Fold this sequence. Notes:
By secondary structure, the protein is an alpha/beta fold. The protein has helices at residues 42-59, 64-80, 82-93, 97-117, 155-167, 180-192, 207-216, 229-240, 264-275, 296-308, 330-343, 394-401, 417-426, 459-464, and strands at residues 8-10, 13-15, 22-26, 33-38, 124-126, 133-140, 144-147, 171-174, 200-202, 222-226, 245-249, 254-258, 286-292, 347-350, 365-368, 385-391, 406-407, 409-413, 431-434, 449-450, 453-454, 467-474.
Amino acid sequence: xxxxxxxxxxxxxxVPVGHRRSHAVINPATGEILADLPLADAAxxxxxxxxAKRGFEVxxxxxxxxxxxxxxxxxxxxxxxxxSIARIATMEEGKxxxxxxxxxxxxxxxxxxxxxxxxxxxxxxxxxPHGMRSTVTYEPVGPVAAFAPWNFPIGNPxxxxxxxxxxxxSVILKASEEAPASALAVLQALHDAGLPKEVGQAVFGVxxxxxxxxxxSPIIRKLSFTGSTVVGKHxxxxxxxxxxxxxxxxxxxxxxxVFDDVLIDQVxxxxxxxxxxxxxxxxxxxxxxxxxxxIFDAFRKGxxxxxxxxxxxxxxxxxxQMGPLANPRRPPAIDHLIHGAVAAGARLHTGGERIxxxxxxxxxxVLSEIPLTTAIMNxxxxxxxxxxxxYDTEEEMIAEANRLPYGLAAYSWTQDSRRQxxxxxxxxxxxxxxxxxxxxxxxxxxxxxxWSGHGHEDGPEGLMACLVVKxxxxx
Length: 475
């Protein structure tokens, strides 16, 4: 399959590299350059802003039926184009074809959900004395600047586009420069389904330049960002200067509490598959395994055996269970964290090294007995490494789960129904799984607490995040 020619998309025009700076998009499985991506300059960004302003005036007056038709139409096109988009995503991000095919369907489900939800933007009428009326209505917030990272090159752009379009907003999407073609394919499906050219645009560029330029403009009324906590805090400060609405899905360090009343093999089969999905480059990846001491040795042994048997390779090949890391920065970053932990006394059971050859491959890794003072126990590793420590009591396990300032996703495995309720109440996370690793769904709000951000994507809450409340009193 041929990788597509890359471009910016502004006011319906595919803007090529031309005189602009460019970024080389690399296949992480081979290290080869796939294409050059144009990087927007100030004039491009100004044009995108003015177009978004016009687009909002068009789309805010669209009917719910019009918006629903675009979303359902785009969903149908994504189904038809599933294989080609999945292959593009695997080429530029590295995850397996099985994963990227699922990712396309994630966006299909989300668009179909929002097609229905945009027809349920209900207001209400308040009880008032005779002769007076008070109503509460919802209106689109305005043009949205949406920043999507590389780790879900199809799903993240879908999230950034679906809710604003359902709400009646225009969107300037800045997806990752390392996985641009997937994002362009999602936006193109919306345009092909009838989205006005002014409503959805895509720009790429030097991230700090783009974010400062867009967020400095009063045209932008909302920031939607998925990425690291460090960058998220920076963008929130920029947005605060103009009191822009923000939805922030930031970093995590997923705690997994495993108690000694479980069937270990069933738990391990689920957790190992989830841990090494997308080579661990998942914001909700289970990472800190907090295991009750009665099953600690058996759990660690079983986890290590399964991790060591995973088939790592080019995500385009059949039978591959884990692809490469997504870019050349990730292997040395993972190396630094793992080797720092081992130097501090952690035990390495499997992995811990890069895989020789082309591309950015890394061995599935298992560490245990890791000191809590190490960087890897306090910073999100965002890679194929599992951290396993043992604890005696439920109280100790909950304390460790809540120790960090992150609170995106957490998991628990226990058959004790009373304990399940206690954990759901006491573990500090925006999303919590009991005896499962499946947490995302089109109808389920997705977001975190503490340093993991605020606001939600998906579900009715994702749509409401793109609306403002207006109360009208009539005498």
